Amino acid sequence: MKDKKSVAMIGAGSWGTALSLVLGDNGHTVRLWGKDEKNIAEINSLHQNSKYLPGITLPNEVVGTTSLEQSIQEADIIVLAIPTKAMREVIPQMLPYIKKQKTFVHVSKGIEPGTLMRISEIMEEEIPESMRKSIVVLSGPSHAEEVSLRHPTTVTVSSKKMDEAELVQDLFINHNFRVYTNPDLIGVEIGGALKNIIAVCAGIADGLGFGDNAKAALITRGLAEMARLGTRMGANPLTFAGLTGIGDLIVTCTSVHSRNWRAGNMLGKGHALEEVLDQMGMVVEGIRTTKAAHQLSEKYGVTMPITNALFKILFNGQDAKAAVESLMARGKTNEMEDLINILASQYIE
Ligand SMILES: NC(=O)C1=CN([C@@H]2O[C@H](COP(=O)(O)OP(=O)(O)OC[C@H]3O[C@@H](n4cnc5c(N)ncnc54)[C@H](OP(=O)(O)O)[C@@H]3O)[C@@H](O)[C@H]2O)C=CC1
Ligand SMILES: O=C(CO)COP(=O)(O)O
């Protein structure tokens, strides 16, 4: 029998709602916070969130609230399920209600442009040490639409404090939702963020009418540049072969559920970025993360041809087909060069 906890879920979008269902299934009490009154009223009256996860009925353990105080006051654990760009806006609003040290979990996938911070670093900056026991990240190949149908899903948790990561593993794990641990916090966060860039590119390739060869090329060479940057930032290269690397790349580049893939698909079909984002109505993290990754590639002097091609399409008005042509016309290179360099930097003195 699981130890029953009280959890504050901050963010009643697709992911916060699906994860609330997992926690409710495990018998934990969830106070699901959102600012949209209509949305929260529906969660409490019909146990549904038709705005973000139509057709799904939430367990009785999940109670919606528009009050951060109500969500947080009884909670042992606070889960942040909001877009990266909302972190610095929402966290300060929570702080007045945190009276003792809590475990903080984030489930978001992004890097902040400008500061180039990972989300756990933003949280370290925004949440005073006196209020936090730990910061844990949960990431991996997990579309909310499938998690809420209780389809088999695997994810990974990581933290600087692995005993706290294990506590979060116990909180979420059940027979539909298998949770692994990985001590490589940098790799887990970087993989989750960068895969969204490659997923936008995969959508563009599909929108342009390219086939499976192009998709396989993007996934494989995308993984190479994710690992190249991540390793320079301190990640373990092996993490990119795991759930939060190749696993999340596969699911996001190949699924119609992915907002990043869908946004890319519309771009590939010739729609303008603004129109795409307007139509999506949900967060497309890969757009801002492309800006951050482009800055990181310059900061660390790491070659990231796919990321930089997307940067030019999104922010410099380059035509998508022309961007593909330039990628294909790059100078000849050795496929294994990255791997050799990574291994050399990590393991060869
Ligand atoms: N959806 C998925 O399958 C998965 C998503 N993720 C990650 O989870 C994070 C959240 O994504 P997801 O739930 O899908 O996004 P959605 O777009 O579905 O929902 C976003 C939620 O955040 C709220 N929100 C947005 N901005 C603010 C703000 N400034 N202040 C307060 N609330 C805000 C929205 O509220 P409102 O409705 O009122 O606008 C909404 O409840 C992202 O980083 C995503 O990459 C990770 C794994 C899977
Ligand atoms: O991260 C996700 C699946 O693991 C969700 O991806 P999208 O944000 O592209 O929908």
UniProtKB/TrEMBL annotation:
Positions annotated as active site in the UniProt record: K195 (proton acceptor)
Pfam families (alphabetical): NAD_Gly3P_dh_C, NAD_Gly3P_dh_N
Catalytic reaction(s) noted: sn-glycerol 3-phosphate + NADP(+) = dihydroxyacetone phosphate + NADPH + H(+); sn-glycerol 3-phosphate + NAD(+) = dihydroxyacetone phosphate + NADH + H(+)
EC code(s) of this entry: 1.1.1.94
Keywords: Cytoplasm, Lipid biosynthesis, Lipid metabolism, NAD, NADP, Nucleotide-binding, Oxidoreductase, Phospholipid biosynthesis, Phospholipid metabolism
Pathway listed: Membrane lipid metabolism; glycerophospholipid metabolism
Binding site for sn-glycerol 3-phosphate: K109, G140, S142, K195, D248, S258, R259, N260
Binding site for NAD(+): G11, A12, G13, S14, W15, G16, A144, R259
Every Glycerol-3-phosphate dehydrogenase NAD-dependent C-terminal domain range: 184-325
Ranges of residues in domain Glycerol-3-phosphate dehydrogenase NAD-dependent N-terminal: 7-164
Binding residues annotated for substrate, in chain numbering: K109, R259, N260
Record InterPro entries: 6-PGluconate_DH-like_C_sf, 6PGD_dom2, G3P_DH_NAD-dep, G3P_DH_NAD-dep_C, G3P_DH_NAD-dep_N, NAD(P)-bd_dom_sf
Record: residues binding NADPH: S14, W15, K35, Y52, K109, A144, R259, V283, E285
Protein's cellular compartments: Cytoplasm
Molecular function, one GO term: NAD binding
Any one GO biological process: glycerophospholipid metabolic process
Entry keyword Zinc: no
GO cellular component labels: cytosol
Record's function text: Catalyzes the reduction of the glycolytic intermediate dihydroxyacetone phosphate (DHAP) to sn-glycerol 3-phosphate (G3P), the key precursor for phospholipid synthesis.
Similarity annotation: Belongs to the NAD-dependent glycerol-3-phosphate dehydrogenase family.
Name of the molecule in the record: Glycerol-3-phosphate dehydrogenase [NAD(P)+]
Organism annotation: Niallia alba
